[in-house]
Amino acid sequence: MRFAIFSDIHSNLEALEAVMADARQRRCTHFVCLGDVVGYNANPCECIQLVRQLDCPVVKGNHDEQATFPASSERFNELAERAIEWTRERLNEEDKEWLRSLPLQRRVHDFTIVHATLDTPGQWGYVFNNLDAVASFTYQRTPVCFFGHTHVPMVFVRDDGVRRQTSEHIRIEPGKKYFINAGSVGQPRDGNWRAGYCIYDIENKLVELLRIKYDLATAQKKITKAGLPRLLAERLAMGR
Ligand code: ZN
Which tens digits make up the pLDDT trace of 91-131? Predict the structure, then answer.
């Protein structure tokens, strides 16, 4: 079994299609989505449709949650807020109902998936360092857990202590725990514009972090044409 694990699509259809095509080419047999299907970019309905067609495990992100509310309850920055208002107006009731139905975390095969953190998944905290990761590891019952939310691919390992592993190829070793950020499909923020996702090969106990080129220019054009803030298009090229 080869799982393609992707997060933070954020309505970027071009990036999502490129990731799907790459995953199929790399013989992935299963798909998993870590949330934030919508928000920021210009194709929320199309991205929801594509993810729903996969009929795969999906957990809820904070933008997915906010898109289902009549008005925002979380303090988003101005860019995120303008995009989520725009998104809310475009989603139909059925799409909203589907987003509402998503769980905050779940188990898939022998691993766990969550959008933000395992200690308080509905509070949308960010895991950027070892100390943040410690709290999630406390609640991690499987050797491997995949998460998203920061838009920065990152691997934390717990054995005697907690440390970061910087390699893009991770061998899952017995007796250790792994808390792995799959990066972001539709709005990477590590200075690299390419769409991020990862593959978990269950039999070979290997996780691979990948970056894929996509049709950035089209995604940017759609954002400006939709009347969304121009900065949302510009940041895609910077990977910020
Ligand atoms: Zn996100």
Answer: 999 999 999 999 999 999 999 999 999 999 999 999 999 99
CB-based contacts of 210, cutoff 8 Å, min separation 6: 22, 168, 196, 197, 198, 199
- Number of folded domains that form the chain: 1
pLDDT tens digits for 155-194?
Answer: 999 999 999 999 999 999 999 999 999 999 999 999 999 9
Tell me how far the alpha carbon of residue 60 lies from the centroid of ligand 1, in angstroms: 10
Band of residue 59 on the pLDDT scale cut at 50, 70, 90: very high
Alpha helices in 26-172 (DSSP H): 44-54, 62-68, 78-90, 93-101, 130-138
Residue 174 CA to ligand 1 center (angstroms) comes to 31
Q: What is the distance in A from the centroid of ligand 1 to the CA of 186?
A: 9
- How many angstroms separate the alpha carbon of residue 18 from the centre of ligand 1? 18
The pTM of the whole model exceeds 0.90: yes
Residue span of the structural domain in which 175 resides: 2-238
- Please give the distance, rounded to the nearest whole angstrom, from the Cα atom of residue 205 to the centre of ligand 1: 27
Output the pLDDT for position 75. Answer: 80
Give the CATH number, domain containing residue 216. 3.60.21.10
- Residues bordering ligand 1, an ion, CB closer than 5 Å: 8, 36
